[in-house]
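Researcher: Good morning. I'm working through a list of sequences from a screen, and I'd like to move beyond sequence-only analysis. For each chain I'm collecting a predicted structure so we can compare shapes side by side. This is the next one on the list. No need for commentary yet; just the structure.
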Amino acid sequence: MGKPRVSMTIVALLVATALSGCSIRVSKDSQTNQDKDVDIHTPLGSISVHKGETDPKATGLSLYPGAQPKKNVGNDEGGANVNISSPFFGVKVVALKYQSDDSPDKVLNFYRKDMSRYGKVMDCTGTSFSMDFHHHDTDAEVTCNDHQGSGHQYKEELKVGTENNQRIMAVRPSGSGSEFALVYVRAWDDKSTM
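Model: Good morning. Structure tokens for this chain:
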């Protein structure tokens, strides 16, 4: 009877110690009073979510000339920057949405050239928009998914980089212009470096 009680006491002390080193910071949008940024830090890792990100430099890609941030429901800007980090693994995802008066073809041609500075650009038109990353081969070049994209909102997609360090651009028609997304994904584990 004494051993389980000692084990539970040790577990309780470990949990209390972990929680005592925890900090949470939430900032609100001054116009909508909704949560905009959340930062959580614990001894085991951290999570940061920053909504409303609009700077394409966070993706490593250029902004298409004349493009404007896409407004979501509630009039907030359609972008986010998410970081999850621990001693064992981490992932960073930056996803931004824009709109342009130009056709999807013009936007695609711009990003084919812009993305080529990171390597061979894959044209993944007709596949499902996704962010695949695996820990088994971090240096493997990105590929297009094998399955067709039925019902997914973006019609054309470009990818460049490696499975664990990739940039994605997806575009679709919107009215007489286009809507497009820029995405940067970086994943790492305890065997790789950021």
